[in-house]
Specification:
Blueprint: E1 11-18, E2 24-31, E3 37-43, E4 50-52, E5 58-60, H1 63-73, H2 81-97, E6 102-104, H3 105-119, H4 121-131, H5 137-148
Parallel strand pairs: 4-6
Antiparallel strand pairs: 1-2, 2-3, 4-5
């Protein structure tokens, strides 16, 4: 690792520990040439995920879009921010465990629906009504019957 102060590339690690998010490692280093110390962070490089939309356009995966949909569906429901965050983490884990570079938005939508169903039944119906684009009351009632039959 190159020293940010003297540009010599002979530094050594003094201390390593997990960073705050537990997804990276914080390393304290010391330059053998100038003796100054600095901190580096090491994180796993993730492959960017591309989402294939219904109109076949492609765009980078964006966690905040899923979060926005879940937050809207959980509006005025007894669901904590911690539960929503856990739900988002579970969704992302399932998406990235597919180990695909490109994932269709419909696949992501189904994963989100499965997770929201476990979170709150009203939030599930709200999300489904937008996601499934119910055209009339009958299709909406069919979805409600699926929930009630379980």
């Amino acid at each position: 690792m190159k020293c940010p102060f003297c540009a010599v590339d002979n530094t050594r690690v003094i201390d390593s520990r997990p960073a705050d998010d537990n997804n990276s490692i914080r390393r304290r280093r010391e330059c053998d040439a100038c003796g100054r110390r600095f901190t580096t962070y090491e994180k796993v490089e993730s492959i960017p995920l591309i989402v294939i939309k219904k109109d076949k356009n492609r765009e980078p995966y964006n966690r905040s879009k899923i979060a926005s949909g879940i937050l809207k569906s959980c509006h005025k429901r007894p669901v904590s921010a911690e539960q929503i965050e856990q739900c988002l983490d579970d969704i992302e884990t399932k998406i990235f465990n597919l180990e695909e570079k490109e994932v269709e938005s419909t696949v992501i939508g189904e994963i989100v629906m499965d997770e929201i169903k476990n979170l709150d039944p009203v939030a599930y119906v709200r999300f489904a009504s937008v996601y499934r684009e119910f055209k009339d009351v009958n299709t909406f009632m069919d979805e409600l019957k699926k929930i009630l039959d379980k």
